[in-house]
Specification:
Layout lengths: L1 E4 L5 H9 L3 E4 H4 L6 H11 L2 E4 L2 H8 L7 E3 L6 H20 L3 E3 L1
Parallel strand pairs: 1-2, 1-3, 3-4, 4-5
């Protein structure tokens, strides 16, 4: 699967997704720092990437009732290992069909 990680997502999350065999792009690397959420969302639509963010409110508004792409809201945990564990469990259980075009929480 292809993921686009927002700037507020820890770098360890990108590492665990890559280790699991997924394609990961970081917003800061592909769009630059401080990129507007609207631009991030539309870049993900163009590239077919699932957005992973901790920025719940803004991205839920962008996704609306029927997101064109997948959105994963990553809840902060006590450790990065727990964040990665929850995200990888969601990815494994939902699969591409469950993530694409849906709003998910990990």
């Amino acid at each position: 699967m292809r993921f686009l990680l927002d700037e507020d997502v820890a770098i360890e999350v990108s590492r665990c997704l890559r280790h699991a065999g997924h394609e990961v792009a970081l917003v800061a690397e592909v769009l630059g720092t401080r990129t507007d959420d609207f631009d991030i969302w539309h870049h993900a639509i163009r590239t077919g990437a699932i957005v992973v963010t901790c920025n719940r409110q803004d991205f839920l508004e962008l996704a609306g009732a029927g997101p064109e792409i997948g959105l994963v809201i990553l809840n902060r945990r006590r450790t990065r290992q727990r964040e990665c564990s929850h995200l990888l469990r969601l990815v494994a259980n939902a699969g591409a069909d469950g993530l694409q075009g849906n709003i998910n929480f990990a």
